[in-house]
Amino acid sequence: MQTPDTVGDDAQFYNDLIHTNSLVVVVKATIHIEQEVIKLIHSVVYDANAFDKIDLTYLQRIQLAIALGLEPRFLRPLKALGEIRNKFAHVLRHELNKNDVDGFYDAFDPLDKQVIQDTYARVRKSDVMKLRKPKKIAGLTPLDRFALCATTLRGALISARRGTHLHEQHS
Question: Where are the domains of the chain?
């Protein structure tokens, strides 16, 4: 169920993904996804304020999320996303390239790769984008492929968080 907060979050996320600068897209997508990891952790810890006072790295946060119940299949794509972001932080004028996005996509579990494929098939058939839409995801630009993978990963985290709330209500 979307709340006014999540609708605003969604709009900002999608707005950040349509930027043409790789640095902006990668860094902002990573921030949005890390925020979803934090929201997931908040949904299961006893005291979210106490958690927020702990100075954790991105990797430590995702490992904690796994320890708290996020399915382990998300560890690899979350780590791959962090590695791409770090390339921008440590390599002057790094551009998102095919190898970066191939590594990100390859980090997904087969189930999630199918979700990515199915999502693209729906987008391709829709009138949402009037632009050229290649038949295969591999025909997309690295930036568009990255956005598709990041969108799927964020959606999976939101779904996982909602699942924790459902579990708590029925326990």
Answer: 4-170
